[in-house]
Amino acid sequence: MAGKKQFDMDAALDAAMTQFWREGYADTSLDDLSRATGLNRSSIYSSLGGKDTLFLRCLERYAARYGEKYDAALACAAAEPVAALRAFFDVTLERIADPEVPDGCLIAQSAMAIPVLSPGVAEHTRKALGLQRQRLRTALKAGGRLTDQHAEAFAEHTVAVNQSLAVMSRAGASPAQLRTIVGVTVDALSQALRP
């Protein structure tokens, strides 16, 4: 039928997301996106938007996909905050170990690229980091065992550690090294919760 899109939108968005994730925003050209998605440049513009629009869609897709996993991991935070924090980090460590996805984290990589991003894309990247901090703060406050100030501090710290895991994995850190980094944060929370 004339005018009907002859491609799978989800597959195209996943391919574009993987391309941005692997190479970063600045190092991904429209030609790279065309090769990754199998769409020509005009189809990318007409169906997926320009590079900024497509990148935003990919960032939202990534944040939603992993955000659901983080939410599930943190669901037990009110009763078991240490187990929840460990499960939160397990989501990241499983993603890092997954051979089907690029190394690192699209949000961490995007945050490091903020100086070269357009203002709108940079702001969206900051919001993605903020959502993760909010998710953690809410979970850590849920059991009432941490003050607002401590929950905020642990949320801020955990986001920083979580993003650093992605960077460290790209730099060649072993799974054991990454688990050691996680262990320090989990132990710190455990000690903060002791009466």
Structure notes:
This protein has helices spanning 9-23, 30-37, 41-48, 51-73, 81-97, 106-112, 119-142, 148-170, 175-193. The chain is mainly α. It has a domain at 58-193: Tetracycline Repressor, domain 2, CATH 1.10.357. Helix 4 crosses helix 5 (81-97) and helix 8 (148-170) runs antiparallel to helix 9 (175-193). This is TetR/AcrR family transcriptional regulator. Keywords: DNA-binding, Transcription, Transcription regulation. Residues 6-66 form the HTH tetR-type domain.
What general form does the structure show? Answer: elongated
Which whole number gives the mean pLDDT? 92
Tell me the strand percentage band.
under 5%
Going by CATH, the architecture of the domain at 58-193 would be Orthogonal Bundle
Would you tell me the structural class of the helices and strands?
A: mainly alpha
Report low-confidence residues grouped into runs of 5 or more. Answer: none
CATH third-tier fold name of the domain at 58-193: Tetracycline Repressor, domain 2
Instruction: Please bin the fraction of helical residues.
Output: over 70%
Q: What assembly state would you assign to the polypeptide chains in this entry?
A: single chain
Q: How far is it from the N-terminal to the C-terminal residue, by CA?
A: 68 Å
Question: What is the number of helices?
Answer: 9
**Total beta strand runs:** 0
The CATH class designation of the domain at 58-193 is: Mainly Alpha
Rg of Cα set: 19 Å
What's the SSE pattern? HHHHHHHHH
What profile does the largest beta sheet have?
none
The CATH homologous superfamily of the domain at 58-193 is named: Tetracycline Repressor, domain 2
